[in-house]
Amino acid sequence: MRFTLPASLSSLEDSPYNFTPYPEDFDEDAEGGDRENEFERLVTDVTAVIGQSASPLSQPDSSKPCAYAQTNDCPHRILHQNLYTLIRKFTSLSPSLQSTTLTLLRSTIQDEVKSIEASDDFIPSASYAKLGLLMYWLSTIMSSSENAYKLSKSSDKSTSTSSNFQTMELLSNTFTTSSSKLWTRSVRDENYVMCPCRLSFQSVENRHRKNPITKKIALKIISNTVKGGNCEATVVAGLVDLMCSCDNAASEVALVCKLTGSESFGNEILRDVINSCRNGSGKGEISAVNFLPHLAGVQGNLIVKNWSLIMPLLGRDVYQFRSAVCECIGVVCGGKIEEEEEEEVVEDEEPQEEEEENEEPKDDRPNREKTVEQLLDVLTQRGHDQSSFTRTSVLKSFKTLFPNLPVSRFQPVTELAIDRLKDKTVIVRRNAMILLKGCLEENPFSGSLDPQPYEKKFKELTQWFEDNELESATAAKKVARLQKEEEERERAEISEEEAERNRQEIEHAIKTLEGYMEEEQSDSEENLARQAERAAKTKALEFTASALSFISSLESTNESLSLMLLSKSMSDVTEALRFFVRAKEFGLPCAVSGMRKALSLIFSNEKSIQEHVLTAFSEVFLSVPGTSGKTLLEPKQIAHNLIVLCGESSMSERTSIEEALRQIVSKETIPNEVFLILWSVASKATGPARSAAMLVLSMASSADASIVDSSSRLRHLCESGFGSYVETRKDYSVARSAARALMKVGRIEPGNEAKRMIGEDIIEGLCAVIRGDWIDDNVDGADTTRKWFGAAEDSINALFSFASEPDFHASEMIKSMSMSTFSEDETSPLRLARFLFVLGHVAIKLLLYTEQLTKELKKANSTKTVVKQEAADKKNREKKEGEDSDDDAIEAELGVAQEQEAVTEQMMADIAEKEIVGRGLLGVFGPIVIRVVADETGEFGDNLLKQCAMLALCKFSCISNAFCTKNLPLILTSLENNTDSDTTLRANTVVALGDIAFRFPNTFEPYTPYLYKNLRDGSDRVKRHAMMVLTHLILNDMIKVKGQVCEVAMLIVSDDTSLNDMSRLLFNELSKRSNNPVYNLIPDVVGQMSINDAVKKSDFNAIMTFLLGFITKERQSDGLVDKLVKRFETAASIKVKRDLTFCIATLKVTEKAVKILNDSFKLYKDALFDEEIFGFFMSILKKGKSFATSNMKQVVDELEKKIVEENSAGSENHDAANKAERAKQKAAKRQANKIERKKALAKKKQELEDIEEEEDFIEFNPNKKERGGEEGTGEAGNEEDVENIQANDGGVFGAVGGGEGKKERRGYGGRSKKSRIPA
What we know:
The chain is mostly helical. Helices cover about 70% and strands about 0% of the residues. It is extended and about 135 Å long.
């Protein structure tokens, strides 16, 4: 009788097992220590029985019907009964007894297994049954342990657990290797074989990440179960179920497939997983589908063979399926698809013929490469999947392909990574950047990607192919040309002789081509060498072209990286900066240009971003590539990098570079040798390098003034920036850089005679630049003057910061310029433009200088007052108590000080208001500025002159309120009159108006609409300046946000990206304020845009969707619904009502909003006939139903019923009204046509009567012969007269009478013409 595994442990107490809970001599009533002693006695008895023989189960009593049903006095029966009791109460045993029991159980099983392996005969059923009983007991204990671990989630790395699994592995191996001894015809009992396997399933589910030893043994048990045969289907079902229930079991199942080495087993699991994914998309299927990439790593051929089954998963809606397939493709292609295993040779197979044995093995590499290409095509397409997780999986899969990615795939993969840099999801952009850096690092071209060597090589190869063109190619071109000419001649119909001559020429050319081709295909050494050289050149050309294409793709990333630098995500910014650093290591030009843009982040509010920017700046421009900033470059190279950086940068970029250099110099990162080299370049170099070096020095002096502020260096600066080199070459860029450096020095302190003398020379050089002494208007054109403007501006700034008496020098300079400007009868427009520019900028600097003096004076007075107060306090402490006369004196003195300070402030204000552009020197030239701007006579038509005059007038207006009040209308009038002619003038004026509004907000307030009006200018540049100015004024509360803000809102959908961004930024900043002004602006914006026909529907929807997104509070949302609903009553058109309904539908729907719509139903019911409006209201009700309470649901249902009824009735009424209106229009048209016809008939009749009256007065001529006929016939009359009448007014009579002209005229009036002629 074979042992049958019971359903539960307690089933062993039933027939046929017949075990009892306790042995007969066991004291069941014992408690505490006595009960523990009873269990120890059972263990002792078991140990004694086992010790009687090496294998107590190896010699069973086969005479009994069953080994476990023996008599009670049998030692084996005592052993089994005691073990059953110990196992039944296993959890109640002490740890030591548990360990001893397990040890006894394992040793007993091991001894029984050894006896089975040692035996050569078939195992008796009794031994087989005892082995099954012991295995069942051990599996029961292990299963209980696994369940306890699953509940506790604790780490179990005990030795006993590993030993238990080792015993189970021993049993599994025995069932596999000794199946012929255990089972008839080697057909294994599934109950026995699957017992260790099920325990392994539990272990994989619970412990596979905690105990690697247990995991390894469990996987071996499962693989042994599969290798033994006839249980494969059960194991497959168990593993698939395990993957569905356990998220992390897929990798272990793949390892089982690898351990079994059976392709059919892995194929069965793969098919089951795919079938489950086809039929469902739950959590279990999502966990199971992760098996695909793990299987691809161990048996990639299975994935390729079953690709037709896997491919449909890419069409599923569950993104996890698509992601798993993409990962699977990456693993398969990364492993290059391992070659298929060799087929097993069947012994009975007949020997093949010698020819087949001698055949060379078939090369399957082309097929594998083709498969890889197809799979990579699929993977590339999935790079644009709708799910960001799938797109991320694609990018990660491509990253794993390095360095095995085919060379032909580098360009497509690079382009995919660049394209995904614009993805809307952060995780996709991050992985795209990682992939792009991988493409850069693993590129197959070289360590340097500087495009110049490749471009040079490409030109050389192209020229070589042009110079060494094949003779056959030249002959082929000639044949093609002759054939084309032949076709043209055939259309021209030439003679047969000429046609024959042409055919002979073509035949000769073809024979020549064939001869060249035969010669080139010959096997001569010379020809083979030529072919080899051409093949090598062709490969080199293809390689160079691929490298240039790859470099071009990387260079095109600047736009995407610029957007990433502006991202709110920290990872985007850091990844972009790291790419610039890595690109610099490969010599890509985009590293420098990208870092110039990235330096604007140096002003970020986040400290970490500033640190990343400085680190990247140091690694790109100061450090040796690849050293992470630890090793600096040579000083000469650092100087060169900084000169190139500043020389190619814009004005905005230079501000960021200066801040970066300031922080780096303050940390003393740059060696002093670098500045010595820069001074040498600034003194000796020519061209842009000279000005760039001077500019770098000026930037560095922001952190360390000693770089410029010394006698020797000031002398170098004077000679380099204002010396003969600049004067001769008129290189105002060098003078400008020198002036910027002087601004960092400050005023020369008295007492330093050397510096004072150098300072006089420097001031003279600054004045020479400002006066424009080196410009000859007869020789130099407007371009030189344009270059002078920047140098003059910075020179004036340097003059007011460096000179001790800048007002005196400015006065002398203006007097000198006025004399030279107006000394001639005809003033040069360029010279006058320079003079007006200096006037305007000097005026602004005088204002700033006055304010600076005021601050210094207040500071001095404050210091003096503090000193007096301290002295008085000290004096009072020395005096006796009760004497307070000095306190009164101090208070009186302090009052005088405050009064004096107020007088000083008023005096300085009067200087700014009345002196600078009023009674002062600059005020003398104010009328000239006004006259040039007004240009009433039209004599000031030069654009540059107009720009300078307008700029000077605006600067004058920023100084004096009275001057501004008087001349602001002139500025606005000139701005309006200059609509198309000069964009620069309008752009500059808009910026100046912003300054005026900031300084005198009350004066400018009535003219605010003129500033908004510039948002409709035809130039994007003017609109950008206007938007920038308005943003600055609104956010600083200098102008009120009124209805004109609709002009700003319309720029949200502008094609210009900068305008779009600035308008969105303005509303975003407004929404952050406590009162949320956007809420108050929306009704006016909706009203103005609804009546504006120029606003498209799509634009309106986009604008309002953006603005309404700032309404997050329910109270504000309900208030807007109330305001917008009330506007239905005054809406003039159905378009306005549609726009109002769209806004209401876009807002958040609340209970109060639904009540408002229900109470205000009469206001909008007349518009419900429109299907678009009806659809909006139905969407509102749908949202309301999703959160409506029981009471609210009644209101929603009632409102829905009314809306539906009104829509039906309104649609019918609207259709009827339209039909009636069309009928009315047709009737009115018919009536109008009838009246017109009557008028035309009356008019023709009147014309006929007038003609007949004229005939009555025709003079009678007796010499003319009348036509015959009786009087009553009406045939008398002059035929010629009748013909003349018809000629003059043809068709009149026909139109009136409708018949022939003669008869109708004869019968008209009832009498003949003859009777009407007077005698």
